[in-house]
Amino acid sequence: MAGEDTTKLQFDKLSSMMRWTDAVSPTLGNIAVGKSSTGKEAYEELKGVVKNVLIAKKRGHTSPEISAEMTDLKNRLMNKQDPDTFAATKGNMGKILKVSIPTGLQAGKVTLAKKKELKPLAKVDLAFVNLWKQITNGTHKGMTKIEKAGMDARKIGLSKLITELKIKR
């Protein structure tokens, strides 16, 4: 119980020192729309701190684990500093279109992306495109079984497409 209180106090201190946008990767796209308000050096330093915390807690500290902790940190900060945005997005940055220029520790005004409603034919087209990408990348479920049967890529694509279309009806 005492450890949880210490962690909560440390998080409260951290959340008073940084915005949730400081925990977002500073890619060109994120910076352009205001999702990230930090520089590359500062972000790498924060990742180093997260790595050291994971090592101190005797937890895994590989790149995916550090990224997961950075996402958790961003989500916790967003939930504390901008609960309305967190409720609308659950931390999914793809649902955020733009963040206005922040002031102080406030993250700035968030503009959410509008969800597109697709017509049934467009859904089928999208399903076909996604399926074809999975097949050509070799990531579709059951792909190795089909390849072992000796089918070429065209037959794989056609058979999977027919199967997907039958399922979607």
Concise structural overview:
This protein has 169 residues and is mainly alpha-helical. The chain folds into 2 domains: 111 residues, no CATH class; 49 residues, no CATH class.
- SSE pattern, N- to C-terminal: HHHHHEEHHH
Largest sheet: 2 strands, antiparallel
CA-to-CA gap between the ends? 53 Å
Q: What integer is the average pLDDT?
A: 76
Number of H/I helices: 8
Provide a descriptive summary of the structure in words.
- With 169 residues, the protein is mostly helical.
- It has two domains: 111 residues, no CATH class; 49 residues, no CATH class.
- The protein is built from eight helices and two strands, in the order αααααββααα.
- It has a two-stranded antiparallel sheet.
- Helix 3 packs across helix 4, helix 4 crosses helix 5 and helix 6 packs antiparallel against helix 8.
- The protein is extended, with a radius of gyration of 22 Å.
- The N and C termini lie far apart (53 Å).
- 15% of the residues are buried.
- The model has no long low-confidence stretch (mean pLDDT 76).
Descriptive key words:
single chain, 169 residues, mainly alpha, two-stranded antiparallel ribbon, 2 strands
Write the layout of secondary structure elements.
Elements lengths: L1 H16 L10 H5 L7 H17 L6 H19 L1 H7 L6 E4 L10 E3 L7 H18 L5 H6 L4 H16 L1
Antiparallel strand pairs: 1-2
